[in-house]
Amino acid sequence: MEDKERATPTKLNKKITEIVNDTADSIENRIERVIALHDSMEELEKKERLRVEAACFEALIEMLIAEHANLSNAADLLELYALLAETYAELNDNRPVKDIAYKVRDIIRCEEATWEVLEETVPRIIDAVNDTVYNHASYDLTLMFLRKAFKEGKLDEELKGRARRLLKLRILLEDPGYFDGFFSKELQDAIAALFSSDELMKIIMNPSVGTLRCDPVEYTFRWENIYHEVERRLDERFANAPRHMGFCFKYWSAKRELLKEEYGIDWKSPAQMNPRVMFD
C-alpha cells in the first residue's frame, strides 16, 4: 500500500509515474499499488479526481500491454479502455478518445476477446466516441463491432440503432471506403435486413446524424484535425463576452470568418443549414 498522505493531483500523478517506472517491482505489485492509489482520491474535487483516475487507467493499460504483448489479457484491457473513455467523456476532453477507439479496434481485430466481453465494453467506448468530432473513428469502431456481432450470430434488433448510425456515416463521411475490407457483401446484406425498404430510403434521403443538418465539411478528416484548435481560438476570443440571447449568431459568424481566412474552408452554420429552425 502507498503511504497515506494528503492527496493532490501533482503528488498522485508523480506517484503513478514512479510506480510505472519501478521495473524492479513485479507487474502484479505495481498494478496493486496503482489501484491502491486510485482509492486514495476522496479528498480531490471532482474534476481533479477524474484527471487522476484517467492517469491511473492509462498506467494500468501501459503495464498490462508491457506484460502481455500478445493481448491475451484483452478482457482487462477493454474494461480499462471503457473506463478511460467514459472518464474523458465526463471531463468533456474529447481528443484522447480517438486514440482509444483505434486501439480498441485493433484488439477486436486480433480476436482475443470473447463476444461477451466485447458486448459489455465496446458499446460504452462507441458511445464516448459518438460524443466527439471523430466521426471516422466512430464509423471504424462501429463497423468492427457489428462485423464481430455478425460473425457471432448476434446482429439483431438490439443493434439496429448502431447499424442506422453506421449507414448514415457511410453516406456522410469523406472516403469511408478505406475500411471496406471489413464491410463484406454478407455483412451489408445482414445490416440491410434489419430495416424495411421505407426505413432504408429515409436513411438515404436524410442521413443527418442527430436532429440538425451539418455542413458536409464537418464529416471530413480535415475538419477533425482542425476542430479543437478552432474552438480553442474562439473560446479565447469570446472568453469575456456575455452569453446573452443571440450570442450563437455572433459566435458562428466569427467561426465562419476564421475558417475562411485561416483555413480556406467555406463553412455553413447550423442556422444556414437548418433555415426552418429557430436559434437564440
Describe the structure.
The protein is an all-alpha fold and 280 residues long. Helix content is 65%, strand content 0%. The protein starts with 8 loop residues before the first helix and ends in a 7-residue tail after the last helix.
Tags for this model:
280 residues; mainly alpha; 13 helices
Question: Helices and strands in order, then pairings?
Answer:
Elements: H1 9-21, H2 27-38, H3 46-67, H4 74-91, H5 95-110, H6 115-130, H7 135-151, H8 160-172, H9 185-192, H10 197-205, H11 221-237, H12 247-263, H13 270-273
Helix pairs in contact: 1-2, 1-3, 2-3, 3-4, 4-5, 4-6, 5-6, 5-7, 6-7, 7-8
Question: Quick recap of the structure?
Answer:
The protein is mainly α. The chain is built from 13 helices and no strands. The protein is flat.
> Which structural class fits the helix and strand makeup?
mainly alpha
Largest beta-sheet characterization: none
- Percent helix, as a range, is 55-70%
Q: Tell me how many strands there are.
A: 0
Average of pLDDT: 89
Q: What overall geometry do the principal axes of the alpha carbons give?
A: flat
Distance N terminus to C terminus?
A: 54 Å
Question: How big a fraction of the residues is strand?
Answer: under 5%
Low-pLDDT sequence parts:
none
Summed up, the helix count is 13
What is the C-alpha radius of gyration, as a whole number of Å? Answer: 22 Å
**Helix-strand pattern, N to C?**
HHHHHHHHHHHHH
